[in-house]
Amino acid sequence: METEQAIDKGPPWWKSMRYRIVLMGFFGMTNIFIQRSNLSMAIVCMVNHTAVDLTAHQQLSSLEGISKNQTRIISYEALRNANLSAESLNKTSILESDDAKTPYSTSSCNAPIQANAMNREDGEYNWSKDMQGLLLGALYWGYVPLQILGGYLMTRFGIRRTVGPCMFVMSILTLLTHAAALISPWVLFVLRILLGTTNAMGMPGMFFILTTWGPPEEKGRLLSIIFSGNFFSNVLIFPIAGLLCSYGFAGGWPSIFYVSGIANLIWCVFWYFIVFDSPLTHPSIHPKEKEYIIASLNLTAKSSAERVFYRPII
To answer: Would you identify the CATH topology of the domain 4-47+127-309?
Structure first.
């Protein structure tokens, strides 16, 4: 019986086409999770948290029956236009008595807001916590329903013709995030839903690579390489997003979306040059490696798997 050592698998792994394609899956998974989580990082710099806290405190004061002339709240526009520091905010936020307009020091209920303001840099958007939650969860509104459709498209058209366009559209939507945020949070909400649909159709493609490129005895190893792109994205996005928020171009936080969108566009270029649906149609795979993969997966021009991936487009 032929042993694994006697099987000619073609070139070593660093020259192997199947490992190059799996590496593309690794970076594809990295890009997908970066596009998914970049708003979570950027929103820390986008939102004026001091204004949000002051607005929430004003609403709470109204609910508790405190009269309007007892508390003077600095509006969001005043904070943004005057660019008040935490120290000036502390001096300006005063209480006035009902009898005489005599300023007093800020009450203890305002102290947590002032203490937090001194330890953070505020952004330009006065989005409530409810709106922030909607924006952060919007991606999954499009992601969850289209998971099944993504799998169907892979089997109908193949990974090359499905994943590439999905990732390209994902890049464009990411690049448009800054403009959407400038227009309205609801425009950004719709954009994130659309971004979720591209996530849903792109992610299955990373695992579909193994259907025609992963020999059975190597699938566990190849799968772990692809899936580890998820964790690698966290290694990249957290420190890079923090640096871009503070030192990035276009005002800081917008550079997070521009950098991640451009990186994904570059990935799309490599995808079309390197990835093909199976070894049967790859123009530059080593003959020995092609023979090994075809034999291990029983791929033939008349096989059912081949007909699935190369069914004519009508």
So the answer is: Growth Hormone; Chain: A; (1.20.1250)
